[in-house]
């Protein structure tokens, strides 16, 4: 396996990881920002008020994007399996 092929494979793996993680994390971050602004405006310092909406949005995101996440991971795995002959030989 040439170093260029390894770097290309590693770059693609990092891209897949970045896309999958950001699809899950970004909605929770946005809801956390909205809740933080609401808490700052109303001076409410309740810990569960910031945790529960983020948890619910993250779970809803996983429910709606689960099919896409699994499909993306499966496509990457199939690509890895297809590249096995070029890695070995």
Question: What does this protein look like?
Answer:
The mean pLDDT is 91. With 89 residues, the protein is mainly alpha-helical. α1 (3-42) runs antiparallel to α2 (47-82). It is elongated. The termini are close together. The chain has helices spanning 3-42, 47-82, 84-88. It has a domain at 45-82.
Which helices and strands appear, and what pairs or packs with what?
Blueprint: H1 3-42, H2 47-82, H3 84-88
Q: Round the Cα radius of gyration to an integer and report it.
A: 19 Å
Structural class: mainly alpha
The largest β sheet comes out as: none
What overall form do the CA principal axes indicate? elongated
Find the count of extended strands (DSSP E, 2+ residues): 0
Per DSSP, the total helix count is: 3
Helix-residue proportion:
over 70%
Low-confidence segments? none
Terminal-residue CA separation: 7 Å
Helix and strand element order = HHH
Q: Could you report the average pLDDT, rounded to the nearest whole number?
A: 91
Proportion of β residues? under 5%
Subcellular location: Cell membrane; Bacterial flagellum basal body
Protein name: Flagellar biosynthetic protein FliQ
Keywords: Bacterial flagellum, Cell membrane, Cell projection, Cilium, Flagellum, Membrane, Transmembrane, Transmembrane helix
Membrane topology: Multi-pass membrane protein
């Amino acid at each position: 396996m040439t170093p260029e092929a390894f770097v290309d494979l590693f770059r693609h793996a990092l891209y897949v990881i970045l896309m999958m993680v950001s699809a899950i994390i970004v909605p929770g971050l946005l809801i956390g920002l909205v809740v933080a602004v609401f808490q700052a405006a109303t001076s409410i310092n309740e810990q569960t008020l910031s945790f529960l909406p983020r948890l619910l949005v993250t779970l809803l995101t996983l429910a709606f994007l689960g099919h896409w996440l699994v499909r993306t991971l499966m496509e990457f795995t199939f690509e890895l399996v297809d590249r096995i002959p070029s890695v070995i030989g």
